[in-house]
Amino acid sequence: MMREKIKKIVELLGELDVESNAAAAERALVSGLELPDIIRDVVDLLNPELKPYEAAIYMYMLRHSIVEAGNQMIRTSVRGLIKAGVVKSPYEGTRSGGGTVVATVSYKSIQTALEGLGEIGAIRQEADPNRDGTLYRVLLPEEIEVCRNARQAREAALPSSIIDERREADYYNVRENRMKIYERDNYHCRYCQKQLTRFTATLDHVQPVAESGDNSYGNLVTACIDCNSRKNVRPLGDFLAEKSAMPTIPT
Ligand SMILES: [Zn+2]
Question: Ligand 1 centroid to 239 CA: how many Å?
């Protein structure tokens, strides 16, 4: 009887392992296109507004939501955050007697940091807690009022003429412009019609850069990472023959 129970548990663990491999494969599909801009905004606009524990927790939540899963949701708890070692206790260190003191950070200080993140609008509780924790939405600097204000103040201080010209023409490197392409294409891959999010979408040059294609509105389409990388390694004609779908570019 005991033996059977153990066998069953091993089987279940095996299934869990398959699931986590599938999750890992899914993670690999997160587009790197938006991340540098997001990280830059977090460092420039959000971190100055946060206390150290808040900043550490926000980065942890960002990493385990958008960066790894491609969406803004994460389920976590005070205990989970402590267990993950997201912040270390300031009292941790070597005792004069030689032994290491491993004081865990207090429940209260993590709780306070979560509340602080909620108050500033960096995270939002989406549902009542269950035994796995609370479901939070991790908000991006552009969705957080203090960050929007900070950005406005910065941009007002910048000379704009040269920047404006570049911004108008470049739909690849300028984030606001990239969003216009995604929105035009309704966050669908133009090749296979897969529904994407801002974090899984990539931009594909219809006429490749290597063949003097530019970053204009008309030369970029939303693509999933699969189609984008498949298309890159073969001529466009072959790719479209296989996919039998020309990307439709609205004017
Ligand atoms: Zn696709």
Answer: 12
